[in-house]
Design goal:
With 241 residues, the protein is mainly alpha-helical. The protein is 79% helix and 0% strand. The protein contains 8 helices and no strands. α2 (52-64) crosses α6 (162-169) and α7 packs antiparallel against α8 (207-236).
Length: 241
Amino acid sequence: MDPVATTTLLKGEQTARRTTVFMKILMASTGALFVFYVLMHMYGNLKIFFGYQAFDEYAEHLREMLTPILPHSGFLWLFRALLVLSLFVHAYAAFTLWSRASGARPQRYAVKSAAKGALRSKMMRWGGVALLAFLIFHLVQFTIAKVNLNPSVTAAQLKGSTGLLVIASFQLWWVVLIYVIAMVALGMHLFHGVWSGAQTLGWTNTAASRRLAHTAAHVIAAVVVIGFLLPPLAILFGLVK
């Protein structure tokens, strides 16, 4: 083989590996931000158990954070901008790794576990797409347009309250079903993401650290799913009105 061609090939492989590692680090770091966000968002949603006034008061406090250093809602918009930027970076890194894995994948897997790994990766990818679609629906419903999907509740009854809008929305079984499906997908995404992120950041070098990371991935996913589903289910069954 031509030595020049061999050297070029090796350099290309090294560059590809470095790019792959960098993309995984991008996914892990942006994923960590999302884990923090969903935990805080889940905590805020639980305020609905203390009544819609408590929920609205919590929402207003978010808008007042770091005032008067920042204008009203300034911190909230800066944090939203950071989340949107992180979402684009996360999606770009995922798509890059997806494309690279698809191009490098052999026709047949020699090891059965490799096929299982590919199935998990595919579920993560399409689960991420589904979560993105749900996120758009969620933002339109409660943040951007504040759409009231419940025909039995009028705008006058809502009184411009986000808390009352949440209660009215989750009185509909099909809205709750959408959220149940989305939260199951989120739980699977979180478990795989936390576990993969721990591996990427080198936190699973020993058997004990692997067990700890695996347990943490399960716990975070379970806490988020249960925490997010408690309010809509409680509203649907009339425990919160």
